[in-house]
Batch of 3 targets.
Target 1
Amino acid sequence: MTNQLHLALKISSAGNKNNVFINNVSQFDKITSLLDSYDFSAFIIDLSIWNSVDLAIKDIYLLKKDYNVPFIVFKNELTNEDKSSIYENNIEDYVYKPIDAEEIIIKTIHWIDNYSRFSINSPSKKKKDVKTFNNFTVNLKNFKIIYNDVDMELTPKEFHLMYFLIQQSNQVLSREQIFNGVWKSDNDGNSYIPSRIVDIHISHLRDKINEVRTNNDVSIETVRGFGYLLKNK
């Protein structure tokens, strides 16, 4: 969460290089709606959004009560008192001047790994069986995706691929990122599989989308030389 666009882009780019997908909001009061729709593994929060570090930590402390995931915060200037307060309120880590997007992602991955090892039975928050993303409704219990009240009738693998793309809506994803998110455990070591299998399933999903959509508010676009982008207005 940051209202500094250049930083948001740098952090997102650093995350993409490490298969960490970033969804950004610019205001704290907008974060709840994002959390209700997306699965997430950590928070990265810009303390400069608040007028003081104390106010920021109070809000983050309340948020942390509900979400059992690591919190990484950053700000150009942090006093020793600020740093002590961050740790006293069980915020996992901080980054300060100079703000380095790569360092933020490295620390985030480190803490996500720690949580995955030691908090296996403590989910970030009770997951909803049904989630809404603009015109899509995803039923995680029945493995169905409804678009404008119409069942897309997806195969199991198409469901996982579509759900993965929906969670990363309006973000450019490489074929490798998509493959790692959906098929990695199925790979038999053949190097040609990631590109070929992703392209085939994307083609099938495009057909399914074309069958149910009534306008151009959603589409899977090819980003030449890189991968794909799910536009979800």
Target 2
Amino acid sequence: MNASSVERAVYFLGNDRVLNFGIAAFESFRRTNPDLPAYLLPFNDDLARTRELCARYRIQIVEDPSLKILHETAEEFWDEKHRDHAMLKKFYAFFGPAKLFLYTDCDVLFLEDLHPLFDKFDRAGLQFLSFDSCLEYVYKAGAFRDELVSSGVTRGFNAGVFLARNASTTLPEVQAFFKTHKAIRREFHDTRDQAMLNYFVDFHRWKHLNFAELDPAYCETNNGRFCPVVHKGDAWVLDDKFSRYHGKRFCILHWNGIKLPGVLPNHLLYRRDRHRPESFSTRVSLDWQNLWKGRAALSQRVSDYVGIQWQRVAKRFKR
């Protein structure tokens, strides 16, 4: 493990399996943050093409024995061996080289320079900043969750994107914590890392806000399903008058839980950064794969769009 040597940085977690998302994430990251240090936490050894991308986009691949220990910590916590437990490697960022860090999965797009975000976080003296709430996918419904909510302890955040400080914990502390808190597993929604990170943050009562609480100009969710996100002035905002998030800014767009190939919400933003480094023939091939695989989803989106437009027309006639 490294002593802190970088003021601020971004950590990705990925491998070749998520390469289509990864290319778009890396391309958008370097377009908006050309000089910010970045690291990749390898999900596993499937990294042949990922290594090429990391070299192209100046992203350093972390090779540290603590990554294997974190994977094993999750396996021991759940009493099972499973590839998904490698997601706990994101805890490395809490004792990695960056004093302030943004962690993100690869299914994201960066829409803004991150330095103003880091500045706001640092000035507020926070330990943790989340970007989306998904309480029902963290803790099971019941008395335990109700108590955490009523006491203001939990926000039930999505663990795919967050901002935090290092030196908040250590590897031995993480190991000891999950070794001695196995009983809490029955309260978790599933066996993924999301509930583990939420409970760790909640238990230690870290000073934690949602990004919209830190800056109300921003949307309280970064979910890529909200669309269309469009460029207005100097910001990317949601342009949907039927949404309570209308006009709110987006800093990072996160397609949490959506698989590729398929037709994505805000797919034009994805195509812009996914296709930029590709040849014309590869672009056409990728578009065809996504269109064919996502034809059912596309039909539903067209139907939804027609319905929304009809509501708008009907509303005008009522006035």
Target 3
Amino acid sequence: MGLLILSGGAASAASDGASTPSVFVEAPSIVLGPVGQNEQVEHEFRLENRGKGDLLIEEVRADCDVVTGNLAGHRIGSGSSAVLPARWETGDHRGPMKRAIEVETNDPERPVVRLEIGAWVCQDFAVHPQSLVLSREAGSAVFSGTLSLLQCSDERLTLARVDASATWLRSSALPLGAGREGYRLTVIADGEAAKGGAVEVLSLHFDQGGPIVVDVPVMVPVASEGRTAEP
């Protein structure tokens, strides 16, 4: 009898586990590139259900100035997902900003999921990232990366030239586009000539009501044998 009771209990537990939801968010914390003052920051989080039972979104709580989609009461079937949009306005803030959202679900292992959105708010201009590690795609002979130079005020930003501390490091610039003022720089290093592990410098010379120079450290990865590494 005891064995039968234990067997029945195990079967019941297995049955309960088979109907349990499991919430998953691939990137619960993100940091966006630079944005200007009084701009809207937007992002979409995808909530997945990797369990067997329906995932119920019981409540969505966010910082007071964050507007989110209304997913409270929404059910996500097994193997399905739902998108939670979020946005807020930067106002006259300057520097780093972070906002948080909490999603309460019926997942017994993870009843509350915390989501975070970060952004850097610039006043006049911003260079992103502030240091750059180049990478190489499979089959390519060169290393590359991108920099963004963003105009954040009404004062027009004009890129005059870019100087490199190494002859094997070069760049090309194009307008950012998509309604944003500034430039996107493609930085390229010759894989044969590049010195893996060395930190070189790109000097960005631009004008915004006067001459400005910003130095950006640039590095090519190094392999254990001292040659530039495959990514």
